[in-house]
Amino acid sequence: MYHFDYREAPKGVKPTRGDFARIARYLLPAWRPSVLILGCILVTSLLGLIPPLLIREIIDRAIPQKDGALLTWHVAGMIAAPLISGLIGVWMNYLVTVMSQGVMFDLRDEMYGKLLRQSLRFFTNIKSGEILSRIQNDVGGVQGVVSGTLVSLATNSLVVVTTLVVLFRMDWRLSLIAVGVLPLFILPTRRVGQIRSRLSSQTQERLAEMTSTVQETLSVSGFLLARLFGAQAHEGNRFREKAGAVRELQIRQSMAGRWFLMWLLMFASIGPALIYLFGGYESIAGRITVGTIVAFVTYLGRLYGPASALVNVHVDIMSAVALFRRIFEYLDLPVEVADPKNPTRLPHPRGELRFEAVWMGYEEGRWTLEDVSFEALPGKMVALVGPSGAGKTTLTYLASRLYDPGRGRVTFDGVDLRALALDDLSRYTAKVTQETTLFHASVEENLRYAKPDATPAELERACRLAQIQDVIENLPQGLATVVGERGYKLSGGEKQRLAIARVVLRDPRLLILDEATSSLDSRSEALIQQALEPLLEGRTSLVIAHRLSTILRADMILVMERGRIVERGVHTELLARGGLYSRLYEQQFSGAAVST
Ligand code: ATP
Prior knowledge:
elongated; binds adenosine-5'-triphosphate
């Protein structure tokens, strides 16, 4: 059995060729804009070479020769070069943004699709904030990788190369001095890179923790829990601790960068100083012109800036690889409950459910269901009873293939559920539980979720059968009233009836029902009972029974204890046997407990 641990963030990022190849595959579909972008970068880096040459001409020719026209033309050139380069930059920025947003769209789309196909196990094992953080922050970070890391890598490399070419052509000895200072930039890089990468992945983890704490606690259920248990101070401390960890890490991350920058700035000033020293002597000796020295030092600014940025790019690449790995980790999630390649079709489903020696465990080495076998014939009702934690809900999960059995098989009309298309399966089976989820949408849209092409007459019939028609008619905008998390608040009983209407529309062959244990008032209860009647009629049903009427009418009662079916039969037989069922009956179903 696969054991999931999604919280593990990749550590010790050591980019491999495989990483780069895969990242390139995502970026490559956008090769056309990439070529254009590279072209822009090349042109702007060449344009950047012009101003220092003009400066040299101004100092060495225009001023000594007192040539005003030459001076004006050169100055105009000095203004025009950055202007043109700026205009190209704007266009390039547009191309880069379009490209990176395209890549992000593809990644988000693929990731969301993959997450939709995950099993219930995945969602029960993961913090909801974590998913959000990967879709928002990690995929969001791709923009930075493309427009920041990749573009600056290309820009800086081209600027460094073109500048070096010009420098060596101007004066190779001064160039050697300029280049000699470069190792001072590169040597401390590795260490700082490691520190920053470690801090950055730690910060990501802590940020994700902080986000999920916020989501967990600042929601209706989280607030109620904290408020009713008087745990607000405790939650406050817990949050402070997490936010504090983020603060410490971000300060450290920022400082690691700053120290680095300080050294870079210091080394960057050594270069020009040395050029003035040696260049000055050379000029005194009449071997080079003043204009050359000034142009040389101006070029140095172009060399050291990009060279130091390149050093940082190396660090950024590691963060980018870590980022992509977190994204790929999600894209590579195994699909545990997968659609079959060639699904078996059932043109006329009868609704026969069968469990054949089924074993199932949530965790390795611990079975929650053990050797469960039974059948629910078409149109018959099977009731599940048993103490809390016996495995009743788990059994219903298997019937709707939310999990696959570890051993044995579950069949519908004799076909293994794993051979049925998931879409078909969800058309044949429906589940009504105590907890009803309504979307933030109109009543009608909520109903149509079950059958998008339902006619108004069908909608009305479903609502009438589910005893919810009167309530809907009295809503402010009738069927168009928005319900759900931020909408009109329906009562618990009304929500359940709406959910039942949804299932009526769906018209499944197998109904899985978890009877309410929570106490609704007796009128609400009676309405739900009435709503369920037409739904149960003529369908196979698997019911987690909490009501006397249900167990009395069930065609078969399965009594579960610690994952096994320990007794089975109809009410009278089981009662006569005097086993677990009769004890449960005494506790749960007889006398005053009937209405619960
Ligand atoms: P109740 O009547 O209280 O709802 P139940 O009979 O429906 O109980 P299940 O919900 O099926 O029982 O749970 C059976 C066992 O499986 C319990 O011991 C429970 O703790 C365990 N269990 C349920 N869900 C998970 C999960 N996602 N991961 C691990 N264990 C789980």
